[in-house]
Each structure stands twice: as structure tokens, then as C-alpha cells.
Design brief:
Number of domains: 1
Structural class: mainly alpha
Number of helices: 13
Distance between the termini: 10 Å
Radius of gyration: 24 Å
Number of strands: 2
Strand order of the largest sheet: 1-2
Largest sheet: 2 strands, antiparallel
CATH class: Mainly Alpha
Shape: globular
Helix content: over 70%
């Protein structure tokens, strides 16, 4: 059985020359039609990214016209630094959404890692590399604990991570007494203020993480197992995919990324503060869902998540430049999230319809 470019199938038959000619003509028409259908399908699949890019471009044009300072060197540097953090926060949620799960504890994991690093450097004089490594390990361990609790208890990830968010944040406040560690080495803040032209090195770190995730989901067996677990956990289990192990891995990876985002915030602030991560939840879902990651799981878009984070950062920075109150920002982001959820529903129906069309 042969499958054409657009899902059409052709099976050659034996017979005389006239029937073979007819078969050749039919195959040519089928391939041509299939190619056109495939191209239209590709355009529709990529329309989300194209639309996001167009919206970001339009917003940049509007904000530049209303406030020329929006494209000043200083503001571009601030945007590059802010979008880097938003990208990594979004990645932290994206990897869990890939399995159809949720992680509401990314802010708590991020602040726990930040406070541990600040404590180790200020109270014990631990070197910067070792302290940062300890913070990343803590983030991965807290994520691992979430994943293990979900698998062992069978309780929905929403409930587990909602509980662990309070547990982690409360434990951190009790142990640290909400102390601000501002006696950390100067090179931490110096790195956060470093700039190459108008680009922060934090943005390059975020894009490097994105490149690694792109390779993970597109070219590795683990990435395929993650997406299979999200698309249909039961079928994946029957096919030999260790869904429980995959769940634990993605939550550990989410914790590692949340810790990375927290440490990036610490370089920006130049101190370890217990308020880190309090406003992460909304943008962490908004960016990946806008970018094409399905809430139901089974489909992610790394590039789309980057564009979604850029959209969130653009709205935040533009409203700040225009001196619009923070409550308006929350209103706009809430409206955008509602639109993103409706788009997610449409993408889910479209993916289901395409799957039925391609099935033999």
C-alpha cells in the first residue's frame, strides 16, 4: 500500500496498456492533488506561528508609534532580559503539558532554588558554580518529588502540584524566615547587567535551552515517548512506553527549568528574594498555549512557545512604557489566555480531524 503526499493511496494493477495508461494518469492526478492538499495542510498547521509573529510585529509597530522610547537601546536590552526569563518559565510548563499534565508549583520550585543558592553563597561562602549547581539539583529533585507523588498516588497532577506549591513555598518561608540574601558575590549581578549591544546573554541561554528541547522532542526516543504519553496514555502503555517513568522525568525536567528561570531572575535582581516566582503562573501557561502546545498533551511547539513568551513580554513592556497600571496588564493577559484556550480547542479538533483523514 502506497501513501501519497496528502494521504491519498494508489495501488497499481496489472492489465493491458490502456489500463496502465489510465493508472498512470490517475496516479499523476492523485499525487498532484495530494501535494496541493499537503501544502494547504502545512500552511494551516503553520498559521499559528505566522499569526503570532504578525501579532508581535503589529504590537511592536503600535507601541513604537505611541512611545518611541519602546525601541530605545535600554528598553530593547530590558525586553531581551525579560523575554529570556519568560521563555524558560514557559518551557517549564510546556514539557509537562506535553504529557497532558500540569505543574502549578513552578514558582515555588524557582524560589526554593533561588533561596538555597543565596543561603549557600552568603551564609557559607560556597563558590558560585557549586551554589548554582545545588540550586538546579534542588529544582530537579522537587520536580521529581511531584512526579513520583502523581504516579504513586494516581491523583491528578493539578491537585498534587497545587498542594506542593503551598508546601514548598511555606517550607521555604519557615526555614529562611523570608530573609533577603543580598550579600551574594558581585559577579552574579554583573552577569545580569551584562549586555552585548542591546541583547542580554540570558536570552542566548534561553534560546540554547530551546534548541536542546527542540532536539529532545523531534529527534530522541524520550521525546517521542513524552508525546505518545500525552496523546494517548493507555495506547502508549500498551505499546511498551513506560508512562509512569515518563511522567516523573518530565516533572523533574520542569523543576530543573523552573530553577533555571529562578536563577536567571536572581542575576537580574542581584539578590535572592522570597518574592521570586509569585507572578509566574499565568505567563507560564499563556506562552506555550499561544504557541501551539495542546493542553490535552501530545503536541508541543518550542518555536511557538518562544513567540508566545515574546508576545507576553511585548505586552508587559509596552504597557509599562505607556505607564498603564498593572491591573490593566492582568486584564489583557487574562483576555489573551481566554483566546489561547479557544485556539487550543480548535487545534485539538483540527489535529483529531487530520488524524482521521490520514488513517487508512
Amino acid at each position: 500500500m502506497a501513501r501519497g503526499l496528502g494521504g491519498a493511496r494508489f495501488r497499481p494493477t496489472s492489465g493491458d496498456n490502456s489500463s496502465r495508461s489510465a493508472s498512470a494518469i490517475a496516479m499523476t492526478i492523485s499525487v498532484s492533488t495530494g501535494a496541493e492538499s499537503s501544502f494547504r495542510g502545512w500552511l494551516l498547521e503553520q498559521s499559528n506561528l505566522l499569526s503570532l509573529a504578525a501579532i508581535v510585529g503589529l504590537l511592536w509597530a503600535v507601541f513604537t508609534a505611541l512611545a518611541p522610547g519602546f525601541v530605545s537601546s535600554f528598553n530593547l536590552f530590558a525586553i531581551s532580559r525579560s523575554v529570556a526569563i519568560d521563555i524558560v518559565i514557559a518551557f517549564s510548563t510546556m514539557v509537562v503539558l506535553a504529557t497532558g499534565g500540569m505543574n502549578l508549583a513552578i514558582g515555588s520550585i524557582g524560589v526554593c532554588s533561588v533561596m538555597l543558592v543565596g543561603y549557600l553563597m552568603q551564609a557559607h561562602g560556597l563558590s558560585v558554580p557549586l551554589a548554582l549547581a545545588a540550586g538546579l539539583v534542588l529544582g530537579a529533585l522537587l520536580g521529581f518529588a511531584n512526579g513520583a507523588a502523581i504516579v504513586l498516588s494516581g491523583v491528578n497532577s493539578f491537585i498534587i502540584t497545587l498542594a506542593s506549591a503551598s508546601l514548598f513555598a511555606g517550607g521555604m518561608l519557615i526555614l529562611t524566615k523570608a530573609t533577603i540574601y543580598n550579600g551574594i558575590p558581585r559577579e552574579i549581578a554583573s552577569f545580569g547587567r551584562m549586555r552585548w549591544g542591546f541583547v542580554s546573554p540570558l536570552l542566548l541561554i534561553a534560546l540554547a535551552i530551546g534548541a536542546w528541547l527542540l532536539v529532545l522532542f523531534r529527534y530522541t526516543a524520550l521525546g517521542r515517548e513524552i508525546l505518545a504519553s500525552g496523546a494517548n496514555p493507555r495506547a502508549a502503555e500498551l505499546s511498551g512506553v513506560p508512562v509512569g517513568r515518563v511522567t516523573v522525568i518530565v516533572h523533574a525536567l520542569s523543576g530543573l527549568l523552573a530553577a533555571s528561570a529562578g536563577l536567571m531572575v536572581m542575576t537580574w535582581l542581584g539578590a535572592a528574594m522570597p518574592s521570586v516566582g509569585q507572578d509566574w503562573l499565568l505567563p507560564s501557561f499563556l506562552a506555550p498555549v499561544l504557541g501551539g502546545t495542546l493542553l490535552a498533551g501530545g503536541m508541543v511547539s518550542v518555536v511557538g512557545t518562544v513567540l508566545g513568551a515574546l508576545l507576553v513580554t511585548t505586552i508587559r513592556s509596552g504597557l509599562l512604557i505607556l505607564q498603564v497600571g498593572n491591573f490593566w496588564l492582568q486584564l489583557f493577559l487574562g483576555l489573551v489566555l481566554l483566546v489561547a484556550v479557544m485556539l487550543d480547542r480548535y487545534r485539538g479538533l483540527y489535529a483529531e480531524r487530520r488524524g482521521l483523514e490520514r488513517s487508512p
